[in-house]
Design brief:
The chain has about 90 residues and is α+β, with helices and mostly antiparallel strands. It folds into 2 domains: about 1-55, no CATH class; about 60-85, no CATH class. The longest helix is centred in the C-terminal third of the chain and has 10 residues, at about 75-80. It has 2 helices and 5 strands, in the order ββαβββα. The two termini are about 35 Å apart. The chain is globular, with a radius of gyration of 22 Å.
Length: about 90
């Protein structure tokens, strides 16, 4: 789930509309017109659904390494790089 966002015409900043949905549901919704009170400039902004987008938080997938639960491959590779030549022969699953 994410927040439907629109752009403030006064400042150009993204503002939340208060509508929570996912991208696919929003894409399938009927074309509509709405108004949102802008927390930045204080004005009411009228907008169409085609001008809005859904801001969904990124989902980060982590693959645990053997013996180190919760350590991601990216973290393991960074640690190997910091170890210099001692980690050069290390293998990743």
């Amino acid at each position: 789930m994410g927040m439907v966002m629109v752009k403030c015409p006064q400042t150009g900043h993204a503002i939340p509309t208060g509508i929570k949905t996912d991208r696919e549901s929003f894409r399938r919704s009927a074309v509509f017109f709405s108004r949102t009170r802008c927390p930045i400039c204080g004005a009411d902004h009228a907008w169409f659904a085609r001008e809005a987008w859904v801001d969904e938080p990124s989902i980060r997938v982590r693959r645990p390494q053997r013996g180190l639960p919760g350590v991601s491959i990216e973290t393991d590779q960074a640690m190997t790089a910091m170890e210099g030549h001692h980690g050069a022969n290390a293998t990743l699953d």
